[in-house]
Structure formats: structure tokens, C-alpha cells
Amino acid sequence: MEPAPTPPPLRLGLAEEADVPAVVALVESAYRGDGSRRGWTTEADYLDGQRVDEAMVRAMLRQRGSLVLVARQGERLVGCCHLEDLGGGVAELGMLAVDPLAQGQGVGRALLAEGARVAAERLGARRLRLLVLWMRDELIAWYERRGFRPTGERRPFPYGDLRYGLPRRPDLWFSVLERPLP
Asked: Which segments constitute the N-acetyltransferase domain (predicted)?
């Protein structure tokens, strides 16, 4: 039996307008629907509907203090995340998504490290914050292994805002995690 071919090297960079449809497709594949169940980041048990749309991603690209990072293997987009300057030395990392077929290959770790670097260098952040659905114990543990700590703060889920999905349960809220940046 032949070994699986080695994937092309990972290239990290900033998303551009032409990347918007691929970013949306990637995020949807990682979080929503039955296809997302191939990976471990799925939210399909908690939310239906969309996770993000093209208008939202375009707004992220145009907003001052907002960046979308992408990871490519060859020409294929395999990961992304969003960074937003919240002011006061805090940047928020969100929409971290890895193609379910590329999960477990270090793409998420690479994006998280690059996001931390970019947040510090380009946004002047001293702390990196993220929000995770409270019941995602495995995902919270993954972030904790990368230096994030729960702040004890809870944020409400945007019920009624269909841009973020259709909740399948009434008890959704976000845990806030943070880590210092060098």
C-alpha cells in the first residue's frame, strides 16, 4: 500500500475580495450541515442555517481594524480566521475554520499562531480574545492547550439574528477566553 501523498506546504496570508466565496464555503463546511460532521468542529447539533454569508465576510474585509487570514495548500483554501481590533489592546479572533478533510494536520494551530502574531504586530493587541459555545468542551480544551483561559464572562447568543444560524436549543451562550500576547 502506497503512503498518502504529502500535502503541499501551508501558505498563510490575508484574504482578498476574490477569496470571499471560498471563505464562506469553507466556514459553512466546517461548522454547518451533515458535511461538517466529518470534522470535530461541527456545530450541527446546536445550530442549523448559515454560519456566515458573503456580505458579512466582505464587511470584515472593509472594516478598519478587521482582517481575515487564510491558509492555503496549493491553490486550495483549507483554513481561515477573522481578527478584529476591539481597542484597549484587545483583539478578538473568530471564525476559525479548517476544512474538515484537513483537520488534524496543524492548520488550525498555524492559523491561531499567525493570528496571534498579526494581532500583536498589525493591531497592537496585548491580549487575544475568542468566544466559544459553552458546551464545546473539547474545543475549549484545545484553546486552553494553546494558552487561552476562561475569563468567567458569558456572552449571549444572538437569537433572532438569522445571519448566525437557527438555534436548535434554547440555552446557547458563549464562554469568553483570553490569552496574553508577547
From this structure: 10-169
DSSP SS3 for 97: strand
pLDDT digits (tens, 9 = 90+) for 79-93: 999 999 999 999 999
Which pLDDT tens digit goes with each residue over 164-181? 889 999 999 999 999 999
Residue whose C-alpha cell reads 483549507 in the numeric block: 78
* Cell, residue 78: 483549507
In whole angstroms, give the CA distance from residue 93 to residue 115: 7
**pTM for the predicted model, two decimal places:** 0.91
Q: Where exactly are the structural domains of the chain? A: 10-180
Q: Are 130 and 93 in contact (CB under 8 A)?
A: yes
Q: Which CATH architecture has domain 10-180?
A: 3-Layer(aba) Sandwich (3.40)
Grid cell at residue 118: 498579526
φ, ψ (nearest 5 deg) of residue 58: -60, -40
List the grid coordinates of 33.
Answer: 450541515
C-alpha cell of residue 107: 492548520
Q: Compute the distance between CA of residue 142 and CA of residue 177 in angstroms, rounded to an integer.
A: 12
**Backbone phi, psi, residue 65, to 5°:** 75, 20
Per the CB < 8 A criterion, the answer to whether 114 and 69 are in contact is: yes
Q: Nearest to residue 177, comparing CAs of 116, 120, 98? A: 116
Residue 76 grid coordinates: 486550495
Amino acid at 83: L
